[in-house]
Design a protein that fits this description.
heterodimer, A: alpha/beta, 5-stranded mixed β-sheet, 5 helices, 5 strands, about 35% helix, B: 9-stranded mixed β-sheet, two-stranded antiparallel ribbon, 8 helices
């Protein structure tokens, strides 16, 4: 799946990124994500702390969707741009947002 | 009354500034009249010995310990009677960290330092991660080393309130650290949690004991002899 296709699913793009998405992962504990997420993943979370970008960069996560209408810090957005990790936001909760992506065949 | 700050970091903490070296820090504490300092690096005690030595030259006593991240991603401060005990405890914490290499460009540098403020090496394992210890396991482990279990910055990121929504009854913590006002029947500490030199002196407490020892600190927590600036202004008004 191309990163832009997440826009077609109704997620609002906050900043663009590089790469394609093959997998999905949902979790709010950063250490858990760091140990378990696969490369080329879209990650769904309610965490917006700048450390999410470090976790994404290390694991090879390509896109982050911030659920429940949470807002990204400006610092987080700037870092994401530098690392070319795409950021999206949505008013949906994590479960609902996962469902949309799951329907597209992402696992 | 002794002026103290019981939660500060050194250059070994990945998120701390690399200027957090012993002599520079000691000068700042000395300047602010802070004579008792809790050195609490993330999941490690690797710089304690050097800091104890350097700080003593400035007349500053350290209260050794560590800031541990539980599996719930809650930050807990462990206070111990000596640097040696802290280091023994730290060895166990190390074995509970994931075997992931730190990426300094993303998480920050983890630097060992000597008494001359020169960097002597780097911790390779990631310290900005959770241990695999649940809060109750962590409590038992701290108690096995006769230490004190204090919840760090409870209402901020990685604080117990923020992570779990409330402070659980168990484990029975010794005290908590808060940024703002908080109601508690336990002692509430206010600390700078300094990660950079300019944050030193931003938050202190006064402790109503005579000696800067672990035993008296423990007593101060039990008898609620720790006072914040708010307590002081209230007693004068």
């Amino acid at each position: 799946m191309k990163i832009e296709e997440l826009k077609d699913l109704g997620f609002e793009m906050v900043s663009d990124g590089d790469g394609e998405i093959d997998h999905g992962y949902a979790c709010d504990l950063l250490s858990e994500v760091m140990g378990k997420a696969k490369p080329d993943t879209v990650w769904l979370t309610v965490q917006s702390h700048i450390n999410i970008i470090a976790v994404a960069a290390i694991t090879g996560i390509r896109a982050i969707i911030l659920c429940n209408d949470h807002k990204f810090d400006e610092e987080t957005i700037q870092r994401a741009k530098k690392e070319k990790i795409a950021l999206f936001k949505t008013a949906l909760n994590t479960f609902e947002a996962c469902g949309k992506i799951y329907q597209k065949g992402i696992r | 009354m002794i002026v103290g700050d019981f939660h500060v970091h050194t250059c070994l903490s990945p998120c701390a500034d690399i200027t957090m070296v012993p002599n520079e820090m000691a000068k700042r504490f000395f300047h602010h009249g802070i004579e008792w300092v809790g050195i609490k690096d993330h999941n490690t005690c690797g710089n304690l010995k050097v800091f104890e030595k350097v700080f003593s030259k400035y007349g500053i006593k350290i209260l050794p310990g560590i800031e541990i991240q539980s599996i719930e991603e809650v930050h807990v401060l462990g206070y111990f009677e000596s640097v040696e005990v802290s280091q023994e405890f730290s060895k166990i914490i190390y074995s509970h960290l994931p075997d992931i290499k730190n990426d300094p460009e993303h998480f920050g540098y983890q630097l060992f330092v000597n008494e001359e403020d020169h960097f002597t090496g780097m911790e390779d394992r990631i310290l900005a991660s959770s241990t695999d210890l649940h809060l109750d396991e962590l409590f038992k482990l701290i108690k096995a080393f006769n230490g004190l279990f204090v919840y760090a910055h409870v209402e901020r990121t990685f604080g117990v309130l923020k992570q779990l929504g409330f402070i659980p009854d168990n484990p029975p913590y010794d005290a908590l650290e808060a940024v703002g006002k908080i109601k508690s029947d336990k002692t509430v500490l206010k600390s700078s949690d300094a990660h950079s030199l300019d944050q030193i002196g931003t938050s202190t407490v006064k402790v109503g004991v005579d000696h800067r020892t672990f035993e008296e600190f423990k007593l101060a927590l039990e008898r609620r002899l720790v006072f914040t600036d708010e307590d002081n202004s209230r007693s004068y008004s």
